[in-house]
Specification:
Blueprint (H helix, E strand, L loop, with lengths): L1 E9 L11 E5 L5 E8 L5 E7 L8 E7 L5 E7 L5 E8 L5 E7 L8 E7 L5 E7 L5 E8 L5 E7 L8 E7 L5 E7 L5 E8 L5 E8 L5 E8 L5 E7 L5 E10 L2 E10 L2 E10 L4 E6 L6 E9 L2 E8 L8 E7 L5 E7 L6 E7 L4 E9 L7 E7 L2 E8 L20 E7 L5 E2 L7 E8 L4 E7 L3
Antiparallel strand pairs: 1-2, 1-28, 3-4, 4-5, 5-6, 7-8, 8-9, 9-10, 11-12, 12-13, 13-14, 15-16, 16-17, 17-18, 19-20, 20-21, 21-22, 23-24, 24-25, 25-26, 27-28, 29-30, 31-32, 31-33, 33-34
Length: 447
Amino acid sequence: MRRILLLISFFASAALQSLLGQVYSFGGDGLEEASDIVVCANQDILMIGTTSSDASNGANVYVLRTDTNFQCIWSLSLGGAGIEEGVTVVENTDQELLVIGNTSSTNNNGYGMIVWKLDSNGELLWSQTYGGSNWDFATHGVAVSDGSYWITGRTYSFGNGATDAMLLHIDANGSIINQWTYGTALEDEFVDLDFLNDGTMLLTGNQRTDDTTCLGWLATINADGILSDFNFFGNDTLSAYIHHTLVHDDYIVHCGHTYQNGIESSYLRRLFQNGSVDWERLENQSQPETYYNVILRNNDYYIASKSKEIGAGGFDALLYRRSQGGWFQDAMFYGTANDDAFLSLVDHPNGWLYSVGHYANDDGSTHLIAYKQLQNILSSENIGEQNPIGCFTVDVQNMKKNVLPTATFYFNWWGQKLEADKLPCCYIKKDIMADGRVNIEKVCRCD
């Protein structure tokens, strides 16, 4: 059983010294998973994901809107009798919302892309499905200034191979302007798109070159739909998978995971916009780890991920902070003995960092967790429990700073436990506090 996590963290200010943070978790008896989070033009928060707690349906897309005081404005469930998956939600310049997902309710032979357009109050304006007679999946979408939308994905219905990368362009009413597919005879997909400084569209995805090798794929497209390969990542012995791409200043940053010698490891990679590589930071973990999303915040990269390398067991939800050189600064993890993940994150104009994902718990309970960046350290605190479905509110709790730890543990960067009298120059310190909170801190004490 999974629970959706909404993580809110912030930098301390003089007015908020006693408040360490707020985290909300919610869900029913089924499976809940948040996939994306965005900030609206009026600074409201939008989350999208998937819920199976409605017994009358297999799984539905959910959309939840809250204000900046974390009070629910509205929530809704979208879907039919089959299975729906929420992928992303985008807001246009009129503050209308495009909810993008995938559905099996309208395609007897498999899945199709589905889009709902809502007004700012969550009222349905129209819905439309896209794809062919086979399976087709949306992976991302953006709104552009002319009122149209671009949607990336993969298709089994069209193209040259087992799956082809798909790019869909629709107008404000959902009518198709253009639809293109690209790929080889094997498996190809687009997972993200952004725009370079000169307005050129950058598409990123993955391209399988044989039965065992996958390359991260970056390409540009012109107005006629002609694709030009921009950059590939990976080789015959290192498979690479892109999950998210960020364009900022003169750079392209993408993250994901690599697969080599039977181990899944995370990576962060930065290119110049001419396609040359600035740097690559490839981890070499002994346990699987994946980076899902990266943003630029206060001149550092913040990354939403999951990892078996460190944490309580299974996959743990993990937030990283890395410098603009790609170097590790600090990290925070949360999780149970099951599988947990942070999948998306966003920087809010009010100074708070929001992240969403899921965690699994055997007994069905849900947990409030809190995170705060204090002195450039990502730390975590447990602040209570809630079990709401749909719209929800949680009381703000002030955390006390004078509580002493009852136990302290030490770990290296890879999650291996260290002896207190044999600590290296840099290590991770984990304090179990008397009130149930957990503090995690990066310590570097050597010159």
